[in-house]
């Protein structure tokens, strides 16, 4: 087998692709925009904040001809329809969709809710974390189905384990994990559907819920105790940044690199899946 020696081969992974990235103005979504542009894609960056979209454009001047923006609500199908159409009007097609929108429940258990707040928090969080993904897929499908295409959904370590969030956040992320499986089956062979499940990440802008009066609260603590807690919780002892996850998105989006991959989730979580095994192994060593 011949091993590629070109150091720039990965940077060409998305040449010729046109991507709509929903949730593009901060955190992992913003990092994915930067990575996709570097890897050769044309990008429509979708976000709520016009100011942050202007900042994105200003910081991406070297890719000005490859970047368009759309300010809208990811839970509004009209905005998503217009953004998908913008990609085709501006760049001639749409063959890649990435969803990174999310809201957080700040680790609330079922016992932390009364009936009224539980219902309103559920509706808000599932609308943002699950419905927005479904609407983005539906809006993009008329264009994605025209050629071999890819969809990458952002999940979480909370899609697998009862950590990383509260009961509603975890349930919503299990739901998006189910979306990967169902959509991969329903849209094959034309569209590949995969997911990336990041673990605890510093430097994000994941916000709280308006229904809980926490819409101004952010999981964005790049230093101090949160970073240390993340490091202690995973075998690799790292606190990930948004950039640490982007290669997984590039790989799964690339028609060249992952054309035989669908229904797959890459867990970029510092080894959270084996954390229990590591703890047991250390305990056995201590006992012996």
UniProtKB/TrEMBL annotation:
Its EC number is 1.3.1.-. The keyword rRNA processing does not apply. Signal peptide: none annotated. One of its GO terms (molecular function) is oxidoreductase activity. It holds the Pfam family adh_short. It comes from the Bacteria. Transmembrane segments: none annotated. Keywords: Oxidoreductase, Plasmid. Gene3D superfamilies: NAD(P)-binding Rossmann-like Domain (3.40.50.720). The keyword Oxidoreductase applies. Belongs to the short-chain dehydrogenases/reductases (SDR) family. This is 2,3-dihydroxy-2,3-dihydro-phenylpropionate dehydrogenase. It comes from Thermomicrobium roseum (strain ATCC 27502 / DSM 5159 / P-2).
């Amino acid at each position: 087998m011949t091993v590629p020696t070109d150091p720039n081969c990965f940077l060409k992974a998305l040449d010729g692709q046109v991507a709509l990235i929903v949730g593009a103005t901060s955190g992992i979504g913003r990092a994915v925009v930067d990575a996709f542009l570097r890897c050769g894609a044309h990008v429509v960056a979708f976000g709520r904040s016009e100011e942050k979209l202007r900042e994105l454009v200003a910081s991406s001047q070297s890719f000005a001809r490859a970047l368009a923006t759309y300010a809208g609500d990811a839970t509004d199908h009209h905005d998503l329809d217009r953004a998908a159409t913008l990609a085709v009007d501006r760049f001639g097609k749409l063959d890649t969709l990435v969803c990174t929108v999310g809201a957080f429940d700040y680790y609330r258990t079922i016992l932390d809710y009364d009936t009224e707040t539980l219902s309103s928090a559920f509706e808000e969080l599932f609308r943002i974390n699950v419905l927005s993904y479904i609407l983005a897929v539906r809006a993009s499908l008329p264009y994605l189905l025209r050629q071999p295409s890819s969809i990458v959904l952002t999940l979480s370590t909370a899609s697998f384990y009862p950590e990383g969030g509260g009961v509603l956040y975890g349930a919503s992320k299990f739901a998006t994990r189910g979306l990967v499986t169902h959509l991969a089956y329903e849209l094959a062979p034309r569209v590949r559907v995969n997911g990336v499940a990041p673990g605890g990440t510093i430097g994000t802008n994941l916000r709280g819920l308006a229904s809980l009066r926490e819409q101004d609260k952010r999981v964005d603590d790049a230093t101090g105790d949160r970073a240390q807690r993340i490091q202690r919780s995973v075998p690799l002892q790292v606190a990930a940044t948004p950039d640490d996850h982007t290669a997984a998105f590039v790989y799964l989006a690339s028609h060249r690199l992952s054309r035989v991959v669908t229904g797959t989730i890459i867990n970029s979580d510092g080894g959270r899946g084996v954390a229990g095994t590591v703890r047991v192994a250390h305990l056995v060593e201590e006992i012996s």
